[in-house]
Amino acid sequence: MSILDSSGDPVDISIVIVSFNTRNVLRECLQSIERESAGLHVEILVVDNNSSDGSAEMVEQEFPQVRLFRSEMNLGFASANNVALKVARGRYSALLNSDAFLCRSALALAVWHMDQQPTVGLAGARLVGRDNSWQPSARMFPTLLTDFFVLTGLANKFPKSRLFGSFDRTWADPMLPAQTDWVPGAFSIMRTEALTKVGLFDPEFFLYYEEVDLCRRIRNAGFEIWYWPDVVVIHIGGESSRQVRSLEMSSAGAQLVLWRMRSTLLYYRKHHGFAAYGARLLELGLYQITLLRNRFSSDPRRRARAREYRSLIALMKQAWKDTHGGRISPPRPW
């Protein structure tokens, strides 16, 4: 039985967008899809995570062709995507962040690549900023060693090293296609057969690590994960960094860090068992060292740094408690 769009033609690709208070960039995102849909039969599904900025109303008024799903609560990234993926009708499904915009021919090239490489279960694009600056687009599965390189700054200090730059593959030529472990969820195209075989996103992950987990399951099922640099997507949000860059942590920033820590523990427990203890000890140890180095300084900047790392220690302890050591996901919304 053919999968058909409203015109009676087969749907080539279902594009799923999760939005949470991103009205203006969501509009630009949807406009980019309209520009790049020529020659393809596309369906667009937007899941609004209970936005308060009029995002859902904007979609209804300006993009009536979009299938809009309104959630009464913030479901997080994994569960919200699943809402749309369960009813997607395309030969392929693509995830696109609401702050990401398709560049010329990106959609057509992504579909063409998937048609040409039937062993690929999921693939990603070359992510760039508005100024064409590079963003990590093809990554390796996290390990305690790569976490150490990222958290200590060694990954940033030696990006061309195959060892220190292994997590983000910063040593590799970004213009060369490559088979990789996982790609960021800002844009990814997925084969329906792969999703049918392994299932959708694990709803235990509210935010962070959900795409890592899905890619691992897809690879374990015998499919390949690829990075295609000719598929270009502008992503203004930048990477969801696991490093702390600000000296004074805002309450919103602390919340995101807590979510990341919870997901870290859930991921390591699910795929590596007792390594969840190692992830906890690694972060606590590094934060304690930084705290001790700065807490007695007379420099106000270093004292501020000490306060922030004291907060990070408290957040990791809270994440460990909230997840029972990575065994359970806290009730939603996080």
Describe this structure in words.
It is a single chain. This protein is of the alpha/beta class. The chain folds into two domains: 13-137 and 174-235, Spore Coat Polysaccharide Biosynthesis Protein SpsA, Chain A (Alpha-Beta Complex), CATH 3.90.550.10; 251-322, no CATH class. It is 42% helix and 16% strand. It has eleven helices and nine strands. The protein has helices at 23-36, 55-62, 76-85, 106-116, 144-152, 154-157, 192-198, 210-220, 251-272, 275-294, 300-322; strands at residues 13-19, 42-48, 67-70, 92-96, 100-102, 120-128, 178-179, 187-191, 224-235. Strands 1, 2, 3, 4, 5, 6, 7, 8 and 9 form a nine-stranded mixed sheet that branches. Helix 9 packs across helix 11 (300-322) and helix 10 packs antiparallel against helix 11 (300-322). The longest helix is centred in the last third of the chain and has 23 residues, at 300-322. It is globular. The chain starts with 12 loop residues before the first strand and ends in a 12-residue tail after the last helix. Mean pLDDT is 93; it is low at 1-5 and 238-247.
